[in-house]
């Protein structure tokens, strides 16, 4: 039986604990505390010993007793908030950090930890402010710099995040989390090869770092090496079967690999483990869209409106945030302001819902891209409904004039609850004068007229959505066919390369601004026999105009719910046939030629 320990002998007990005789030292300290309940200095030591020996709940109890006696004991506050942090009890942890900072406002590690907590709580603006204060106090704190990179990454500022990770690595080349995070960001920037190399560097430094293996699997998932990704996820799950992120990621890999049974299994596991995780909710929404379970899909997809990153770095969005309606019902007679989605392709997509909306709410106001206003007004017989984007929503004084302010991307939950809710034929129509004008331009062209668009300009996803024009030689061998350029942007070098490589001229109508003149682009599309395109805004326009179209699906098509369908058709655009990209470009060209012949 352990003898009673005197206070003057406690130093030896602590040394005993540090030397590895933890059980015996703890037994002695426990006996001492039992007889000296008010010795809070040594109760702190007791709590620390309990924590280090894995007895966290007892440690928490004793840290709390120390804080009851001395609420500002910064060591007890720090150790307790770090335990809560590790337990993912972020609100509890933040409360203690704030308490510490109220008495020590420039305590640099706590400012850094507060930023890290706010990152996990999705308060990104506040997180960024705190970590920048922390770095100002210690410019060499590579951990704080790494956290700043994480915050910037979550905000979508990938180049800025990349720069911070590189700074952190320059300060400490062995801090492996920075490699893992840098690799993840390089994947977001579509720098896949370097992303994989950096992740492998981090794994070499620490082969047991779970996060790096997870990110490497994510990289393989991103480039279509699904089986390799799944193998890594499986190994990680052997160690930690209830890891919420890895269960979500393996579900996505199985989904991408078209193993829907396994995908559903792991989505269900994630739903039970962490139903509020934003990545799970986004990926599960796409899975439900694929299954065409639209009502439930919108429920998960709408979660974007509750996340900070949807509003970050957009002063206008932040201003309107508290006014945006996220509920599930709209009532007849209410005055609605509808605000366009960010990209013009998404705006056209959700614009196919406007006929339903206008029928039920004939007095609603819809803010839209000025390039689409005349097209929408004429097609939807709505002269008074469409106004330029920001003409109303940029002034807070106008918000109270409306019962509800709704983003166009939220209209699906009201009007597209099941597959039969989609229109059999979209209602967008070009102007007759423009149809005649374009017809006169094309009169001299003999044979079939096929429009062609091969690039997407969308940041981060463009490469996976685009194809190289010079790889399309087989396509241009089609007899009795003339290809019409419908590719917007700077493409002069593409056209020159094509002509030099296989002497094929793609006709460009210089009278039409392919970037901005959506009226004449619409007329051109409607004068074609067929349109072949990758995923871009012109593809959406063609679908909304009911133009016969072959759409070459993006390599990462699962992230575009409107193209990711159980067959080769999408309910959003009945005139579009979807074509998946095979590994070999020649196979793609042969598939295209066969499909063109059938059509």
Describe the protein in words.
The chain has 599 residues and is an alpha/beta fold. Helix content is 54%, strand content 7%. The protein has helices spanning 10-18, 22-35, 40-52, 56-69, 74-86, 90-103, 108-120, 124-137, 142-154, 158-171, 176-188, 192-205, 210-222, 226-239, 244-256, 260-273, 278-290, 294-301, 315-320, 344-351, 354-360, 373-379, 412-415, 432-442, 462-465, 492-502, 518-526, 537-544, 585-598, and strands spanning 336-339, 365-368, 386-388, 404-407, 448-453, 481-485, 530-534, 549-552, 569-570, 573-579. A 6-stranded mixed β-sheet has the order 6-5-7-8-10-9. The protein is elongated, with a radius of gyration of 30 Å. 41% of the residues are buried.
The whole-number mean of residue pLDDT values reads 92
Strand-residue fraction? 5-15%
Work out the count of structural domains. Answer: 3
Query: Using DSSP, what is the number of strands?
Result: 10
- CATH A-level architecture of the largest domain: Alpha Horseshoe
The count of helical stretches stands at 29
Poorly predicted ranges: none
- Helical residues, percent: 40-55%
| CATH evolutionary superfamily of the largest domain | Tetratricopeptide repeat domain
Task: State the end-to-end CA separation.
Answer: 90 Å
Q: Looking at CATH, which topology of the largest domain would you report?
A: Serine Threonine Protein Phosphatase 5, Tetratricopeptide repeat
Q: What is the radius of gyration?
A: 30 Å
Return the structural class.
Answer: alpha/beta
- Overall shape: elongated
User: What's the main sheet like?
Assistant: 6 strands, mixed
Order of strands across the biggest sheet?
6-5-7-8-10-9
CATH class of the largest domain, anyone? Answer: Mainly Alpha
């Amino acid at each position: 039986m352990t003898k009673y320990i005197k206070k003057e002998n406690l130093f030896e007990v602590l040394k005993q604990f540090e030397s590895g005789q933890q059980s015996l030292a703890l037994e002695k300290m426990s006996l001492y505390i039992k007889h000296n309940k008010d010795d809070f200095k040594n109760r702190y030591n007791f709590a620390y010993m309990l924590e280090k020996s894995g007895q966290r709940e007892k440690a928490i109890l004793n840290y709390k007793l120390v804080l009851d006696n001395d609420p500002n004991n910064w060591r007890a506050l720090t150790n307790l908030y770090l335990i809560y942090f590790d337990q993912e009890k972020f609100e509890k942890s933040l409360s203690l950090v704030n308490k510490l900072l109220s008495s020590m406002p420039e305590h640099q590690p706590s400012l850094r930890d507060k930023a890290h907590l706010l990152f996990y709580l999705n308060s990104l603006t506040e997180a960024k402010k705190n970590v920048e204060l922390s770095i100002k106090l210690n410019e060499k704190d590579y951990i704080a710099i790494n956290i700043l990179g994480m915050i910037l990454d979550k905000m979508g500022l990938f180049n800025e995040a990349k720069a911070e990770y590189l700074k952190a690595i320059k300060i400490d080349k062995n801090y492996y989390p920075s490699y893992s995070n840098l690799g993840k960001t390089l994947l977001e920037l579509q720098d896949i090869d370097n992303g994989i190399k950096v992740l492998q560097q981090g794994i070499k430094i620490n082969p047991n770092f779970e996060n790096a293996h997870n990110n490497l699997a994510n990289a393989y998932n991103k480039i279509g090496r699904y089986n390799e990704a799944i193998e890594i996820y499986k190994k990680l799950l052997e160690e930690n079967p209830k890891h919420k992120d890895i269960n979500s990621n393996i579900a996505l890999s199985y989904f991408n690999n078209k193993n829907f049974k396994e995908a559903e299994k792991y989505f269900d596991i994630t739903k039970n483990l962490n139903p509020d995780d934003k990545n799970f909710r986004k990926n599960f929404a796409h899975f439900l869209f694929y299954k065409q379970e639209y009502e439930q899909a919108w429920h998960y997809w709408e979660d974007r409106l509750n996340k900070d990153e949807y509003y970050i770095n957009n002063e206008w969005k932040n201003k309107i945030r508290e006014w945006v309606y996220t509920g599930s019902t709209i009532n007849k007679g209410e005055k609605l302001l509808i605000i366009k989605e960010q990209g013009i392709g998404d705006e056209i997509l959700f614009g196919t819902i406007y006929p339903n909306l206008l029928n039920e709410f004939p007095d609603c106001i819809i803010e839209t891209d000025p390039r689409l206003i005349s097209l929408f007004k004429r097609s939807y017989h709505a002269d008074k409904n469409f106004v330029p984007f920001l003409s109303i929503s940029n002034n807070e004084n106008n918000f109270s004039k409306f019962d509800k302010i709704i983003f166009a991307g939220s209209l699906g939950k009201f009007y597209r609850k099941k597959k039969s809710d989609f229109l059999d034929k979209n209602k967008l129509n070009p102007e007759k004068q423009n149809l005649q004008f374009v017809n006169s331009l094309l009169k001299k062209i003999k044979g079939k007229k096929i429009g062609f668009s091969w690039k997407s300009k969308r940041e981060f996803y463009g490469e996976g959505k685009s194809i190289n024009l010079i790889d399309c030689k087989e396509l241009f061998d089609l007899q009795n066919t003339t290809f019409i350029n419908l590719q917007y942007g700077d493409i002069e070098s593409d056209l020159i390369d094509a002509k030099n490589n296989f002497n094929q001229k793609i006709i460009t109508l210089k009278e039409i601004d392919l970037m901005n003149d959506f009226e004449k682009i619409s007329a051109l599309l409607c004068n074609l026999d067929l349109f072949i395109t990758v995923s871009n805004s012109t593809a959406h326009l063609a679908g909304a105009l009911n133009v016969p179209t072959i759409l070459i699906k993006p390599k990462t098509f699962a992230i575009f719910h409107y193209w990711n369908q159980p067959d080769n058709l999408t309910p959003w655009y009945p005139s579009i046939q979807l074509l998946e990209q095979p590994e070999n470009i020649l196979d793609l060209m042969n598939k295209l030629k066969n499909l063109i012949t059938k059509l």
